[in-house]
Amino acid sequence: MKKRLAVIISVVLSASMLFGCGSGSGATPATQAAEAGGKDTQAAAAGSKEAAAAGETVKLKYDLTVSLDHPWGQAATEFKKRLEEKSGGRFVVEIYPSSSSGSEADSLAGMLVGTTDMTMSGGSFNGYAPSATLLEAPWAYNSEEDVQNMVESEIGTSIKNDFETAGFHVLWYQLRGARQLTSNVPINTPADLSGRKMRMSGNTLHTNMWNSAGAVCSSIALGETFNALSQGVVEMQENPYDMIYDNSFYEVQTYVNETNHVYSTILNLISADLYNGLDDEMKGWLEETSREMQQWTNDYYYEHKDDYRQKCIDAGMIINTEVDREAVREAMSPVIQSYLEDQGAELWDMYQKICEMSEANAK
């Protein structure tokens, strides 16, 4: 605990830079909490443990970067309903959608200092655990099934253990559609990327690989991306179809260039210290609900995975299927290998194993 608290402030600051959050209007709630010092995870965990032991209600503040209409928002609503019913009201889940409680970086930092309890994160968690990069490993997966196989393998277990070590307990994962590149002109080859300004989430590997392919990348928080596109600060961004639609990027972008460069997953997280402070009965309700949600979200994803592509078409976007994916991949591959080797922790070896698993799954 002391070691974790000793690095909270430095992690908060680096995470803020990593996710590209903040508008220059002052310290974020997470930064303020870190600077305050006394309001730490010990207090949050102790409060939960005392409440559980006394049979009192435990409130869970659940931060989301998406709307309640988004599949993640619908899953959060289903989780809330099931957990509250299962626990007879001992748990109360308060959902804060659409980044209303801050950016993803704010929420993650807040979980370490006790200002929030739950959120979702994936590859952008790499500022806390480098292995999280593999949850969004570029060009490593050919389908959602490949991602699912990885998460449920020894590699996936190792990644989830790294989240736990960093102070975040994994409840369940949610599959995501492939990331696509949006723009106002067709992008077919690396030459089409040259000099074009592009928004990135702050994932260092993804930023480096797009830079190497010719784009000029900037880290911008998701909630600020629409304005950045409409004002010409950037002219491209990349996200799965659901995020393209949910953030109304169809209003400021004409083309979806089907690069399919990243299939990925995102993890639902609860503060590890809060979780460890719960009694066995409350942990049991939480884990049982999470297992149910794993099946619910998998079923929902496969049933609706193509819906958002059609929604983008209906909103007027043009789907460009003429992208030379192999040329783009070749332009990015050297940087991917270099970055993963530099990160240590055998990330490059793990990446190669994931690629081998995906290739075997395709046969």
Outline the structure in words.
Strand 1 (58-63), helix 4 and strand 2 form a beta-alpha-beta unit. The chain is globular and about 65 Å long. 49% of the residues are buried. The chain folds into two domains: 56-175 and 263-306, D-Maltodextrin-Binding Protein, domain 2; 177-260 and 318-360, Bacterial extracellular solute-binding protein, family 7 (D-Maltodextrin-Binding Protein, domain 2). The chain has helices spanning 2-19, 29-36, 41-53, 71-86, 104-113, 144-151, 154-166, 190-193, 204-212, 222-230, 241-246, 272-276, 280-304, 307-314, 325-343, 347-362; strands at 58-63, 91-96, 118-121, 168-176, 179-183, 197-200, 216-219, 236-240, 255-257, 264-271, 318-320. The termini are far apart. By secondary structure, the chain is α/β, with parallel strands linked by helices. The strands form three sheets. A six-stranded mixed beta sheet has the order 7-6-8-5-9-11, with helices on both faces. A three-stranded antiparallel beta sheet has the order 3-10-4. Strands 1-2 form a two-stranded parallel sheet. 52% of the residues lie in helices and 16% in strands. Keywords: Signal. InterPro entries: DctP_fam, TRAP_DctP, TRAP_DctP_sf. It holds the Pfam family DctP.
